[in-house]
Amino acid sequence: MQPFRADLHIHTLLSPCGDLEMSPANIVKAAAQRNIQILGIADHNSTKHGPLVQKLAQKEGIFTLCGAEVTTKEEAHCLTFFETLESLAQFQQYLDEHLAKIKNDPKYFGCQVVIDEQEMIVEEVEHLLISAINQSLDQVEKKVHELNGLFIPAHIDRPKYSLTSQLGFVPPDIKADALEISKHTTRDEIVKKFPYLDPFTFIRSSDAHFPHDIGQTTTIFELEELTFDEIRMALKKEKGRRVFLNDE
Amino acid sequence: MTVKELKEKLDLTIYSGEQGLDNEITGGYVSDLLSDVMGNADAGEVWVTLQTHKNVMAIASLKDMAAIILVNNHKPEEDTLAQSNEEGIPLLGTAMTTFEVTGRLWELIKK
User: Fold this and answer.
1) pLDDT level of residue B111 (50, 70, 90 thresholds)
2) Are A54 and A228 in contact (CB under 8 A)?
3) Does the beta carbon of A106 lie under 8 angstroms from any beta carbon of chain B?
4) Reduced to 3 states, what is the DSSP secondary structure of residue A148?
5) Quick check: B59 and A168 CB within 8 A?
6) Dihedral pair phi/psi, residue B45, rounded to 5°
7) What is the CATH number of the domain that holds A208?
């Protein structure tokens, strides 16, 4: 078993709040410099930059989980990741169907552009990505699992856009593959406050919007090899695979 | 005023929790952040929200609230309905927006 450092919550410049320097190439460069072996690309309500990051990261021996940070109708943020480009595309279609059709105003919210390997703009996403989709937490969870993906409620300790802020507490029966906490808390602190969360796997990530954020907060995965299935097994604590936070 | 009287005055739909229709309403609270309701709502209040997740019922029960009004035609989820029936806290609905229903509520129950 080998340890791998993961930062599973990274925004690209596609997110309106993501810095323009967060190009796929810059993200991969920063990850390589900081010894990150697993990247999670999760733009707000869009999956469109994952595949390019994955392609560039592969050359550096970095594994990429492609997905999105979904805003459910309760306005709770959830990380979602998919194993294949087909399931990623199917999830993108679901997001397109359910995102509120509010035109983005780059002046207020920032640009929402998809770029290619040459850093040329290939698409400017029209609808505001930081609004919510009209699907509930449970509906998003079902869809992600239908597509055999990973469903991880984001920064559950934070006072905004989290399960605790929006829904008061983490629903005890939630079918989450893990729960993400921010750098502001520890697993011990959360479990002390909410003992029923003890059985869950926790990850901690940077929620990077700027290049210097990447890899500032990480989670360690102990795996046999770097594959999606191994990562899933680690989240499920199967066959000796495991996930732990830096301070555990 | 009881929940039943309020229901009639504002022509609200009853989704569930009919056992609680005689609950006495002592005030109201309006919020869509459940963490805020948990911290600030009081017993006996009617809660106006657009959130439909079942945690709404857990918090209404924890705070011993009189009833919940879902605005803007938001429909409760199945497990939310079930829990409302279990707790005996009525879950009501309206096509009115939060602004309108809250204004009318204020007129009816202000002291």
Assistant:
1) low
2) no
3) no
4) coil
5) yes
6) -85, 155
7) 3.20.20.140
Q: How many CB atoms lie within 10 A of CB A199?
A: 7
Q: Which residue of A has its CA nearest to B52?
A: A74
Which CATH number belongs to the domain containing residue B49 in this structure? 3.40.1390.20
Distance CA A166, CA A36 (A): 32
Q: How many domains does chain A have?
A: 1
* Selected residue of B29, B32, B33 to mutate for chain A interface (largest A Cβ count, 10 A): B33
Please give the structure tokens belonging to residue A183.
């750098």
- The secondary element (H helix, E strand) that includes residue B27 is strand B27-30
* Phi, psi dihedral angles at A10 (to 5 degrees): -130, 130
Chain B touched by A139 (CB under 8 Å) = no
Are A102 and A132 within 8 A, CB to CB?
A: no
Which ipTM was obtained for this model?
0.87
Give the nearest chain B residue to A161 (CA atoms): B33
* Residue in chain A nearest B56 by alpha carbon: A167
**Is residue A7 over pLDDT 80?**
yes
Q: Which domain holds residue A107?
A: 2-245
Quote the domain boundaries for residue B11. Answer: 3-109
Name the domain count of chain B: 1
Q: Which residue type sits at A174?
A: I
CA A40/CA A79 separation, integer angstroms:
9
List beta partners, residue A222: A3, A242
Closest CA to A170 of A148, A154, A185: A154
Chain segment A85-109, per-residue pLDDT in tens: 999 999 999 999 999 999 999 998 9
When the pLDDT of each residue in chain A is averaged and rounded to a whole number, the result is 96
